[in-house]
Structures are given as structure tokens and as C-alpha cells.
């Protein structure tokens, strides 16, 4: 393993790092002048969009000043506001002013809809609300904050601007004002001159609605989205944004055009090298893990074979030398030898079966069989073994037949392996439950124990070849690491599925699902 990591680091240092260093050098070759030009250009565009926002803010504050002056004038308020706003500002649809119990609503003659006092009472902050108090605090500190919200009425979109009104000497009043306008008309009629002024022939300035890729207004007949260099939010129009770019190719692209191709090739090469190195390291690591598992398997199998062979040899020698004092003792020795030889046979059969399946030489029968009958037969044959091991068991079979297609002996081997595991890994609570049920066109067999359980991090690997948990109580149990791998392979051959639920200290549930044969 140490040699593996040494070679891996050598590969990284010798191949990947030089290419990364060269790519970094190419990036650094962009001159300071080019970087400064790019930065100045971006700042200039930001400043232009800022000026558009500032202009729109100034326009609205001019309207508010008109409303405030009209309220302080002796002239008829309605006539004054109507003349100064509605006549010269086609985007303004309605004006609302609330002062104590007095309310004023003025509607443009061009407006095709009108909003009532109920609408404003719902939309504007209540004088007793925290939001109203915040607006007053802003105003008292010299900042007249404008609340902006967009709403739809019919098939049209409107903008509601609300604010606390000031007196001529800029003191805070109890008046709450609101302006309803058409945002797109505001952009096209009121702000278009500003767009043209800042754009001249050098830039393209556009305004977009957030849910539409076509501009509401642009200083150019057509806009190439790739030429947009900077976008900014519209301060007063939450559903719109500003964009600015050049009529042709962006300056940034021109500045960096000479490096794009080289850097693209380098980055692609680095990516391929990185992927290749990753795949090589992963495959080597996988092979090394498999080699380690095989080595552990050989060690475990050697131990598994050595123990019964040693017992058989010892008892055979004792019997041969006639050192057994009684017939009962002889019978006990014979039983032990028979048990250990059966254990040897089981290990050898498991290894042979695994070898056949691993090489694709195992042939399975495809008979019509009843899962209930197989489970009942295996559990019946296993009852004596369970009792001698001190286990109690529950067998619950489906009331309906569970016809499936498969190899009876192979499926029996699956259940035997699961029962062996349940016995092997149960220590304090020796209870096993075997069930069959019918569900969702599946024949389901479950084996549940209350043993030591399997850690969450190892559950995905328990069905791999030669895998054995290397830490905890599971590591202390004997085994070859083939049992669950055989289970998985047999179930896969039967087009079934195996699932595991386990919690350390509480036990495990293995669920086997077979496709039901249609009656």
C-alpha cells in the first residue's frame, strides 16, 4: 500500500503539476495594462447604469416634491397636482394622499382603471405599524425612503410607490403619499432620453423585465445578449433590471482572445490527465483491495479448514489408539467428527459454488416452484441444528401460494446461508424469525435475527466478494466472506432483489424478493 501511494504521488508531481504550473504561467501573462483596462471599463459601465438609476430616482422625488408643495399651497390641490403630473407625465396613473382622516385620490384622464381607498388601505403601511415607524425614522434622519411594489390588475402591470411626505422645511408630516404608474411606460416615455444620452454611439443601454428576454426598451434596434457586459437592478422597479454592453464584441473578449485557445487546450489536457490519473488510481486501489481481500480469504479459509481437520485428526487418533474409556464417549467423539466433517463439506461446497458462479459455469434450473414449500422444508431440516445452538425460531408462511421460477437447491442455499449468518452473529438474544409474504407482484422472504447487527458504513459492502467487517464484534466471528456474496449472485440470477436493514446491537433483517409467476 505504501508503494502504491508513492507511485501515485510521483505521477502527480511528474506529470500533472508541471502542466498546472504552465497553465498558471499563461494566465499570469495578461499584462497589468490589460487588467487595468478591463477594470476601468467595468467601472465605467457600472457608473453609467448608476446614473440611470439616479436619474429615475430624481424624477420620482421631483413628483413627490410637487405633491408636497401642492399640499402646502393655497391653490386647489387637485388642479395643481393634475396639471403638474398628469399632463406632463403619461406614466403616472393615479395619486393618493392620506392625512389623518382625510384622503385624496386623483386619477389621470388617460387611465383605464381606478383604485379605491380600500386598495390603498390594504397596500400602504398602517400608521400604527412598525413599517410606518421605520419610514418616519428614515425621514427624521434626512432620508425619504420610497417603498416600491409591483402588482397586476387585469392584463396590465402597475408599480406602487409609497412614502411619507415632508413639509417645505423638510420636517416629517403625518401625510402618507402614493403614486401608481405604468413601469414600462415610465421606462419608454420618461427614461428613454436618459438612455440615449448616456449610450450615445458607444454603448447599448437596455431595460428588461425579469421574466422576459426581450428588452422593454433599448437604444439599439436589436440586442445581442452576449454583448451585455454589466447588469444592475432597477432601484425603483423591482421586476426590471438594466443592462449595458457594446454594439460589437465585448472589450473583455478582445483583451483575452489571444489566450482563450491556449488556455482551453491546457485546461482540457489537465482535465483528461486528471480523469486518467483518477481512473488509474481508482482501479489500482480497487485491485489492491481485492488482492487484500483474497489474501484475507485464504487466511480465513485456512483457519476454517484447519480447525475441523485438527479435531477430526485428534479424535480419530484417540479412537485408533483405543484410549476412549466408555461407549458413550466413543459415540460423542463420532458425533463431533461427523459434525466437523459436515462443516468441512459445507465450506468446500460453498467455495466450489462460488468458483462456478464467478466463472459463469454454474447452471441453474428454471422450474416452477413454491417459495413456501422451500422455506418450510429448509426450516424443518434446520430445527434440530437451531435447538442444539440454543435458538428459538418463528416460521410464518404466506397463506397464499408463492409460485416463482428458479432453482430449488440454489434458493434453499440462500436461506441456509442467511440462517447460518443469523446463528453465527447472534450472541445474547437467540431468536430467528423467517417469514414469507406476497406483495406488489413479488414473493418476499425475510430472515430476521436479534444479533449484533451490521454498522451502517459496512452495509453496502457486505455483498461484495471476500468482504468481512474488520472491526467490532463481527470481526471476531469465523467466516470466509463468501456467504452473502453467494446470496447476492444467486438472487441476481433469479432476477430478484436483496435488501438489508440492520442496526448495531439490535439485529438484522434480510429481505429477498422474487418475481411472482403469473397464474
Question: What does this molecule look like?
Answer:
This protein has 519 residues and is of the alpha+beta class. Among the domains are: 253-353, Helix Hairpins (Orthogonal Bundle); 364-515, 2-Layer Sandwich (Heat Shock Protein 90), CATH 3.30.565.10. It contains 11 helices and 16 strands. It has a 5-stranded antiparallel β-sheet. Strand 13 (431-439) and strand 14 form a beta hairpin. Helix 1 runs antiparallel to helix 7, helix 9 runs parallel beside helix 10 (408-424) and helix 10 (408-424) packs antiparallel against helix 11 (483-493).
Task: Write out key terms for the chains shown.
5-stranded antiparallel beta sheet, single chain, Helix Hairpins, 5-stranded mixed beta sheet, 519 residues, Heat Shock Protein 90, alpha+beta, 11 helices
